[in-house]
Amino acid sequence: MRHSLSPLLTDFYQLTMMQAYHDSDMHEEAVFELFFRKLPPERDYLVACGLEQVLEYLENLRFSEDDIDFLRRDGRFHERFLNTLVDFRFTGDVHAMPEGTIFFPDEPVIRITAPLAQAQLVETRIINILMFQTMIASKAARIKQVMPDKILVDYGLRRAHGAEAGIMAARASYVAGFNGTATVLAGKLFDIPIFGTMAHSFIQAHDSEHDAFLHFGMSHPQNTILLLDTYDTEKGAMKVIEMAEEFKKHNITVRGVRLDSGDMIELSRRVRKILDDGGMKDTLIFASGNLDEYSLESFHRQNAPVDGFGIGTKMTTSADVPYFDCAYKMVEYKGLGRRKFSKGKSTWPGRKQVFRHFRNDGIMSDDSLALENEQLSGTPLLHQHMRSGSRIEPPSGLAGTREYFLHQLTTLPSFDREKIYAVKPSPALQTFADSVTERMQRNNR
Amino acid sequence: MRHSLSPLLTDFYQLTMMQAYHDSDMHEEAVFELFFRKLPPERDYLVACGLEQVLEYLENLRFSEDDIDFLRRDGRFHERFLNTLVDFRFTGDVHAMPEGTIFFPDEPVIRITAPLAQAQLVETRIINILMFQTMIASKAARIKQVMPDKILVDYGLRRAHGAEAGIMAARASYVAGFNGTATVLAGKLFDIPIFGTMAHSFIQAHDSEHDAFLHFGMSHPQNTILLLDTYDTEKGAMKVIEMAEEFKKHNITVRGVRLDSGDMIELSRRVRKILDDGGMKDTLIFASGNLDEYSLESFHRQNAPVDGFGIGTKMTTSADVPYFDCAYKMVEYKGLGRRKFSKGKSTWPGRKQVFRHFRNDGIMSDDSLALENEQLSGTPLLHQHMRSGSRIEPPSGLAGTREYFLHQLTTLPSFDREKIYAVKPSPALQTFADSVTERMQRNNR
Predict the structure, then answer these.
(1) Which residues numbered 408-437 in A keep a CB inside 8 Å of some CB on B?
(2) How close does chain A come to B125, measured CA to CA in Å?
(3) Chain B residues lying within 8 Å of A131, measured CB to CB
(4) Could you give the ipTM of this predicted complex?
(5) CATH 3.20.20.70 fits B150-316, yes or no
(6) Residue B1: is its pLDDT beyond 50?
(7) Which burial class, exposed, middle or buried, applies to A135 when counting CB atoms under 10 A from its CB (0-12, 13-18, 19+)?
(8) Nearest-angstrom CA–CA distance, B439 and B428
(9) How many inter-chain contacts (A to B, CB under 8 Å) are there?
């Protein structure tokens, strides 16, 4: 994915501003933080995800000759500036919440500290990476909450918004507790377990469902999951039972069956009974088709005998909330705090830390939003991951990240419509913010 | 974007089915067609987009040694099958509606004719490419309809679902009549005009708005667009007027100003008056911030003096309809028509063509959905683009595609809530479908 690392994967204004910074000799250290604004009613919390791809992007950011030639032909840049791009590197620091961290609005999920032009250029891609993976992990986490003990598999690639979205949705949902994905490339890239069954077209390519079941079983005797609904789900289940002797003859173990249409809660009961009565008590039932946390709630309430779910479109597009209002804002430049103070869009200035507090029973109680150098009680959530453009630790696998998230999920309080989790600015942060407002307003009278 | 061409960018079941087809010697020609199901109330029509990326994918599809090793380590495939992947190529035909074609539910937008395993493998990525770009082009077209004569610029990259989504949204919105994009890499890859202004952080990095305006102007004297709302939009506009002499001294032309918050319709009037009274009648006004066709409708109705719009999140995520129900279905195998005939999900069998009819005044009247070999009146919409795995024509630029779409837009009828565009199956197609149902049901009794 070379394009995913290109410095041209940015908004044009980042480059025109870079030239202006160059012309004005504005090379001092700037600090930007990314945070999410107020959550929509469909979400109570967020799950940080995508930091690994941000670090990879920052470590590999280079303008190729071809990139610079393209900008030269554009005609809006001068040679003095273009020449600086040849040796451009990201040389800054990155502090961030580890992936899998549960967080809330106004809390910085990542902080970039770097010479102004560098910190500015990377804005677009950092938001692009972190908003998407965080959105997907946050959606998948809700599904995991409804079905904590079932097999959950990402089926979303086909309706994801492009290749990267499909791959990264597999990654983000795995972090949030899914068991695996159907997307082969995501399995390869991130060592995620890969799941799969068969499609309707497989059945339709055969003259009969019987032949299709037998052919698939003979090709995958240890890994046979049969799709039942191409013609009629219950008749499909009965066919599986009728074929028991044939399967046995060819040493085929039918590990599971899949339902993909109809009233799947009712069908799962009937199919379970057909399988149990036919002596296939160990054969698992999978369900798929337009599922999300809202529909899974019904499966849960009605105790449907489904062992695993394939979750596609609605998770991979975060269909009920397909974007979040998040911003990457300058909080300091040349050692001075900076902020926006326009109504409804004001931001907290300065380098910040989040301190989390827990109740005696281990459940999260509230967070303090404080200045980085404050020594407050609680668990600090941001840690340093990059120093002077280099990672502090090599990338680690996702298994630990997933465990870290799943542990946190056990500390999540219950939410109701009235109550949002408390994120309180510290007194020192409030005082600092007021002083920044006062200074900025004075300069712009 | 190597990953975007990987044969592993697919669902695992495509590979397990391929092995089963291999084991059963099912290598005959199969035909699949991709179509969209019923549209949601927010959409009246669709705009085909993404064919170029599908052709590029099909032409370059290769399993690397590394890919095959990965599948070997997975343990669910046998050597006889894995060995066939070394020389795997897509050798089929592609018929499709050209990009920019306006189309409707049930109409095949692409047809793949290839040996069964090939046609099966590519399903996931073809849907992934075509659904997304078609969704974005269809959304952008609605914006173009509301604002046919304004400058429309894609600002969406940061909240797009990953890198590819951002790049391809720039492409799809350009096809649908946008004037350009802020995404530099999309401009480079597809020769799309690139637009940009400045960010709030640029203003905030300076001690005063005055210094920020001046520095930007000096760095980009012919390309200065100033962001007005960092502190106060009207005061920002007055500052531009006050600085007229300074700008003149440095040969700076202020081409435009940008509004990004507040009541932008009212503000655009006030800012226009301030600029006009200050002698800057030629300075353009741009607006951005959470815009889509619904909010632009108000700008239009109230005749707001805005010359151009930056359209971001809601277009690039197609926020009101972030996915479509579309399917890639087998319509023929071994010379026999195939279909699904389950309730509400039935599909039309056979290789099909769409014939479009126009009224005397040139406006589209209705489409016939027919078998490919029928000779009906009307304009056929599907054409052949690939033969035996090779493109018939080299890729052409987007300018012609954009013109083709814009011409069609002039032939679009007006829609109202009650009336949907008529897509009528031909009598021959209906008869054929019935015969296919009859045969398939007989075989599965």
Answers:
(1) none
(2) 6
(3) 158-159
(4) 0.97
(5) yes
(6) no
(7) buried
(8) 17
(9) 321
